[in-house]
From TrEMBL:
Listed name of the protein: Probable bifunctional folylpolyglutamate synthase/dihydropteroate synthase
Species this chain originates from: Halorubrum vacuolatum (Natronobacterium vacuolatum)
Signal peptide (UniProt feature, chain positions): none
Catalysis performed (reactions): (7,8-dihydropterin-6-yl)methyl diphosphate + 4-aminobenzoate = 7,8-dihydropteroate + diphosphate; (6S)-5,6,7,8-tetrahydrofolyl-(gamma-L-Glu)(n) + L-glutamate + ATP = (6S)-5,6,7,8-tetrahydrofolyl-(gamma-L-Glu)(n+1) + ADP + phosphate + H(+)
Cofactor: Mg(2+)
Biased composition (Basic and acidic residues): 457-470
Length: 470
């Protein structure tokens, strides 16, 4: 079997079956397929990360910190930018084509038999199984799993993690997870391990719900904000201060009652500071990590398509924000840059909240709407009407992403900003215009930065931490 044949088998599987319950298509079929392979997940130490926004970035930072501590680390995320192999990485290297082929050859008869009975695993269930199978074969020290949807019945929940996190909770997938933030938080809270730590940056009602579901939740929050608990203003267990942008890095301080650390982030924005706090808290719970390893990990963690600056004259930013909350975060991060006109290239999926996303992106002066090559993409005419109604921007319609990017950059002055936003699918297509590849393992920091060494990051340990008590 050739690699492309194996990939076709994967993409021929169902994406989501509305006629089957979440449990049936999240857990049961994943467990059945894993059983067929000898339950490899039972031999892989895992960390599970759920959340409405930020779980991928958090997983990336956690993986990098654990790598800096000397561990062999598997990373499972979704979706991918260019190639499905991006979703499954070991030590920053995507799974090989040979491994994908070997897996499909091993399970093909099983998939065909289950398909004949109408019970074939979905694409995500099969990818999750492939990840756990590969992590077991390569004997990783730790696997970091990004939850796909919700938590309780997500395919990744076949594992009993050593530690888990819920990064944030907003209204999303309300037709599946529940109509309210509390209902959604309840689903996500189920990733909590039996007897292990749960880290969360959720707040207000979502935090209250998580605390009702979990014995002990370690909270993370920015010090410029507070957590609303029992109508009182509560200080988070892990405090994060975002001190602004230094070049293309973010300066942060992370602290608890006995420890404090200054660090820099390759991922920009106040929201990424919060994600970094969650990643650091998880790392200190499961491994012996030094302050220097934490600093190096945060500074070297790169996550393509997440506020990715690809040019500066004009400023060109790729960001996969795909809901109102993440769009607000993108605009907040962008406010630290100086530019004249803001030109958006927007491609959004049909199941998203277009109107609220448009409102969040209201600072735009010009908007070019387009349709990524995905069957879920919203019609460009529909998006044009929404942005025309919700913003004062001048609207242009383009047939595809590459045309929209080219025209926006051509029309921009060197002092303008071109922001490509709305979905990971739009960002993936835009990245090809700049020759970027997501299959290249990240170089070390010295190769991708201004050349400064991590030794200029000040750390202030106030006691000798054993690396486990965040």
């Amino acid at each position: 079997m050739e690699y492309q044949d194996a990939v076709e088998v994967l993409f021929d599987l169902h994406q989501f079956d509305p006629d089957r319950s979440l449990e049936e298509q999240g857990l049961k079929e994943t467990e059945n397929l894993l059983r067929e392979l000898g339950n490899p997940h039972d031999r892989v130490p895992c960390i599970q990360i759920a959340g409405s926004n930020g779980k991928g970035s958090t997983a990336c930072m956690l993986k990098r910190i654990l790598r800096e501590s000397g561990l062999d680390v598997g990373l499972y995320t979704s979706p991918h930018l260019e190639d499905v192999r991006e979703r499954i990485q070991i030590n920053d290297i995507p799974i090989s084509e040979e491994s994908v082929v070997s897996f499909i050859e091993r399970v093909l008869d099983y998939l065909r038999d289950r398909s004949a009975s109408g019970l074939s695993p979905t694409f995500f269930e099969t990818l999750t199984t492939l990840a756990l199978w590969e992590f077991d074969r390569k004997d990783v020290d730790m696997a970091v799993l990004e939850v796909g949807l919700g938590g309780r019945y997500d395919a990744t929940s076949v594992v009993n993690p050593l530690a888990a996190a819920v990064t944030s909770v907003t209204k999303e997938h309300t037709d599946i997870l529940g109509e309210t933030v509390c209902e959604i938080a309840r689903e996500k809270a189920q990733v909590a391990p039996d007897g292990g730590p749960m880290i969360t940056a959720a707040n207000r009602d979502a935090l209250e719900t998580i605390r009702d579901e979990v014995d002990t939740a370690i909270t993370v929050g920015r010090v410029e904000s507070t957590v609303d608990h029992d109508k009182n203003r509560e200080t988070p267990d892990i405090r994060v201060a975002y001190k602004g942008r230094i070049g293309l890095e973010g300066a942060i301080t992370i602290s608890d009652d006995d420890w404090s650390l200054d660090a820099r982030l390759a991922l920009l924005g106040p929201h990424q500071a919060t994600n970094a706090g969650v990643a650091v808290a998880l790392a200190r719970q499961v491994a012996e990590v030094s302050d220097r390893q934490i600093c190096s990990g945060l500074r070297n963690a790169r996550w393509p398509g997440r506020f990715e600056v690809v040019d500066q004259e004009p400023l060109v930013v790729l960001d996969s924000a795909h809901n109102p909350a993440s769009c607000e975060q993108t605009i907040e991060t962008l406010s630290s840059f100086e530019y004249d006109a803001l030109r958006l290239v927007v491609g959004i999926m049909s199941d998203k909240d277009h109107q609220e996303m448009a409102l969040a992106l209201d600072p735009a002066n010009y908007v070019t709407v387009c349709e990524p090559e995905n069957p879920r993409s919203e019609d460009a005419d529909v998006l044009a009407a929404v942005f025309d109604e919700q913003t004062d921007a001048s609207i242009t319609i383009c047939s595809d992403v590459s045309e929209a990017v080219s025209k926006s950059i051509e029309r921009a002055n060197s002092s303008d900003c071109v922001l490509i936003v709305g979905s990971l699918f739009a960002v993936a297509e835009a990245r090809r215009c700049f020759g970027s590849s997501s299959l290249i393992a990240p170089a070390n920091y010295a190769d991708q930065s201004s050349g400064s060494d991590s030794s200029d990051i000040e750390s202030r340990p106030q006691h000798a931490s054993d690396g486990r008590n965040a």
